[in-house]
Amino acid sequence: MDTLETLIEFSRKYGADPELVNAGGGNTSAKQDGIMYIKCSGTALKDASEASFAKMDLEKLYHIFERRYPEGDREREAAVLADMMACRVPGEEHKRPSVETLLHALFRQKYVLHLHPALVNGLTCSRGGEAEAGRLLGDEVAWVPACRPGYTLALLMHEKMKAAGSPLGVVLLENHGVFFAADTPGELDRMLSDMTEKLAGCIREFPQTGDGGAEPGYGEKLAKLSGCEYFCYNGSTTARAFAASLEAAKDLLTPFNPDQVVYCGPGAEYVDDVDRVRAIRKKTVLVRGAGLYTFGRTEKEARNALLLAEDAMKIAVYSRSFGGPRHLPEELVEFLVHWEAESYRKAL
Ligand SMILES: [Zn+2]
Question: How many Å apart are CA 345 and CA 307, to the nearest integer?
């Protein structure tokens, strides 16, 4: 099997598991002869094909780290994006490489797998995350604190790599996910299952987000109040527990990671009494006695929001085993809401 075929195969495999990644989240890459194949922005890993990957000139990508960029967010991100687009090899101009392209380029190994697993994010979105990561996974697993995505994150990771001396194979990103890098897909597999096993061994309480039961009939009214045509529902044991009171819901009212901001919007809302509610401002709502609803202007939008809201419930429950939840800092939520790269991803 050649490099691209191998990349497509493992992308589909991991992408099909909702415990590892949802909607257009996560990405993969492979390097060969000075070229990096990187997943295009907003495409789903589970549907990976040759067309899902953009071919990038690695040497040109490395030069981005030597350049200086403007201070202002908007100007800097636009300039970096333009430079990144210029790294596409001829014939690839119609493709939009992932917002995490620069991070992939930093790894020296042939294959890179970047996922947002709920279990791993239970750790990266917890107050004790960094200390627990060191204790459970060892010093060879690097930890990158929450920061602005895109160029800022890439620079921070670049610094981590230089400081480490030897090539890093596993990097945890606070309030975001994990990177694995290896020269064979078998090694990636082993790294992922090793981490999963270690973390699962620490979990004292597991989420139960499946098998919701029948929707109690509030969906249509709530969707209309939110200005949307479509809704999805989860009435599982865990969803009902979060919807039991405003206090119980509080861990879900602010987002944990960028994916949630992209697909569920900046936070959720709690509804105490459906008969009295006059307006719904958020895309995700917890309804007392019923469970969790998501809304969308299309069926896909409502469904993607549900997938990420379910992911948030899992993260919230897992994080209790690592010192309790730690949400995405407010200024990062604000940045993501206005970031062109994420608006692009969401629009797909
Ligand atoms: Zn990511």
Answer: 16
Residues 6+ apart with CB under 8 A from 324: 126, 127, 128
Q: Which of 61-65, 85-89, 136-140, 297-301 has the lowest mean pLDDT?
A: 136-140
| Cα 279 to averaged position of ligand 1 atoms, centre (Å) | 32
What distance in angstroms lies between residue 156's CA and the mean position of ligand 1's atoms?
A: 15
d(CA 322, CA 129): 6
**Fold match between 3-198 and 219-347?**
yes
Most confident of 70-79, 81-90, 149-158: 81-90
Strand order in the sheet with 27-32: 53-57, 35-39, 27-32, 111-115, 177-182, 170-173, 141-144
Q: How far is ligand 1, taken at its centre, from the CA of residue 332, in Å?
A: 14
Mean pLDDT computed over 205-225: 92
CATH class held by domain 3-198: alpha beta
> pTM for the complete prediction?
0.93
Distance 233 CA to ligand 1 centre (A): 26
Please identify every residue whose CB atom is under 5 Å from ligand 1, which is an ion: 177
Over range 61-86, report the average pLDDT: 92
CA of 26 to the centre of ligand 1 (A): 5
Indicate the domain borders of the chain: 3-198, 219-347
CATH topology of domain 219-347: L-fuculose-1-phosphate Aldolase (3.40.225)
Q: pLDDT, tens digit, for every residue of 162-199?
A: 888 878 899 999 999 999 999 999 999 999 999 999 99
For residue 152, report the distance from its CA to the centre of ligand 1, in Å. 14
- Could you tell me the distance, in angstroms and rounded to a whole number, from the CA of residue 34 to the centre of ligand 1? 24
